[in-house]
Specification:
By secondary structure, the protein is an alpha/beta fold. The chain contains seven helices and twelve strands. The strands form four sheets. It has a six-stranded parallel sheet, with helices on both faces. It has a two-stranded antiparallel ribbon with strand order 2-3. Strands 9-12 form a two-stranded antiparallel sheet. A hairpin with a 2-residue loop joins strand 2 and strand 3. Bound molecules: nicotinamide-adenine-dinucleotide.
Length: about 220
């Protein structure tokens, strides 16, 4: 079996929220690569030394970097996970594509601007890179079951898709992705949205709404 050499950009860290324990998304990507059997994480990069070293220890990763561009130059990577904050995704994906990586799996949301999103796609097309985003809900059992029930006519006809989450810019991209999942990727004929931004609210340093609804 061919072994794919994987690199991670943005290892994150173990997080404690009240009584709950969580991890940066890179830990979830790493668990999936490990489960696959034909992938090996050979390098990881983060600007915070303690983050990258803890991740390397957790997943037995031989090479650590504080500069992802150095990792791209030194390691001959087949695939990269980009698990950093949204405003960094576009440039990092472009750098991976230009460095000769064959596939990039990037965290959602795609980018913080429409221009950034287009530049990512252009770079990956030009260099023949497979670019995917981590909208994992379409693989989750409850979401798939709901789709099966709609398709079987158990719920009735699908006439409209609505979303509301209080953070359409970051978390809300899952909702928009699910719209395509439930309507067989049929392009929208019309869309409507309302946003309330009466108080400042920042997620990953970017302004997001206090409340929104989109149809
Ligand atoms: N798919 C999902 O369900 C899901 C869930 C949560 C978060 N996310 C997304 O994952 C992304 C990361 O979120 P997180 O919670 O894992 O963040 P995090 O803060 O835990 O990890 C991000 C890491 O990126 C590192 N970083 C920042 N700048 C860097 C640089 N220039 N080079 C290398 N590393 C750098 C940070 O030091 C940090 O360790 C976000 O885009 C978020 O929206 C997705």
């Amino acid at each position: 079996m061919v072994e794919l050499k994987v690199g991670i950009i943005g290892t994150g860290k173990r997080k404690v929220r009240g009584d709950a324990m969580g991890y940066g998304m890179a830990y979830h990507h790493a668990a999936a690569y490990s489960a696959l059997g034909n992938c090996r994480i050979v390098a990881c990069a983060d600007i915070v030394r303690e983050n990258v070293e803890a991740f390397a220890e957790a997943y037995d990763v031989p090479s650590v970097y504080l500069d992802y561009n150095k990792m791209l130059r030194k390691e001959n990577l087949g695939m990269i996970s980009v698990c950093t904050w949204p405003h960094l995704h576009a440039q990092m994906v472009i750098d991976c594509a230009e460095a000769g990586v064959r596939a990039v799996h990037c965290e959602k949301p795609m980018a913080d601007t429409w221009g950034g999103a287009k530049r990512m796609v252009e770079a990956c097309r030009k260099h023949g890179v497979q670019l995917t985003f981590d909208h994992q809900r379409r693989f989750g059992r409850p979401f798939r079951l709901a789709r099966e029930l709609v398709k079987a006519g158990e719920i009735g006809d699908l006439v409209r898709l609505e979303g509301s989450c209080g953070d359409i810019y970051d978390y809300g991209t899952h909702y928009v992705d699910m719209f395509g999942f439930y309507n067989d990727e049929t392009p929208a004929e019309w869309v409507m949205g309302q946003v309330d931004y009466s108080k400042e609210k920042l997620i990953f340093g970017m302004p997001v709404e206090n409340h929104s609804v989109y149809l």
